[in-house]
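[Q] Does anyone have a clean structure-token version of this?
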Amino acid sequence: MSDAAFETQRAALADVVAIPVTPFAADGGVDQDTYRALLRRLLDGGVTTLTPNGNTGEFYALTPEERRLVTELTVEEAGGRASVLVGVGHDVPTAVASARHARDLGAGMVMVHQPVHPYVSAAGWVDYHRAIAEAVPELGVVPYLRNPQLPGARLAELADACPNVIGVKYAVPDAARFAAFARDAGLERFVWVAGLAEPYAPCYFSAGATGFTSGLVNVAPAVSRNMLQALRAGDYPAAMKVWEQIRRFEELRAAHGSANNVTVVKEALASLGLCRRDVRPPSKPLPEEERAEVAAIAEGWSV
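[A] Here you go.
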């Protein structure tokens, strides 16, 4: 396929790429009605790209059946209002089956989670992604890159074999490394998505990113949109004003090795009455004494 075939998908990545939470019901299962309501809130807030089965959606804590369910609900709610970028991963056959399921539902893209295998070679990384991308040539494929050891030339090699690899969710916390990696891989060849969300978006945009992922957007879609608008305009002082506004919330999420990354988002949503605070192990709900600070931040954004 030509680049033009993926024009819509590429445009969808150059935006706020929302990672919806997966709300759980009192019985511990996925709360389908609440999930739909949270998606509608994102869509009504101007979000046009949704990533079911992302890390903020507790991808690794969901069963295969639940991952399929979340994908189905997202595609259904998105309708023609948003592009859907479905998270896939685990072993190659599982990832391929998930990607084909997403394709059959009408999703336009898949995000391939960074392999969590303890032994990842650069050539093996290419083989893993190539097997998935070749199985769904009609879908845009977006590697979720968290490996600082991978050279940019390997991504270029992957895209040479699989032209449907159109973007990268880059989540190595090193802006200088990102700038070099993007140029080694091909700055104009891919859509570069700042995969560490709003805290890193300004510095990554300055080096060539045109989109960023967000978990915060679940709580305050307008705040994320404000940052995107400032970055698109090249107005870094305005973007940093938003950065200051979200700094404490993101520091709470990043504390203790990001132990509370999802927990803080769900706590904020719970404080607004939008879903239960429940998360699954190995995450854990916030202790009672830490909830008030999160609630105060969320309340300030909702005014």
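[Q] Thanks! Anything notable?
[A] The chain has a mean pLDDT of 96.
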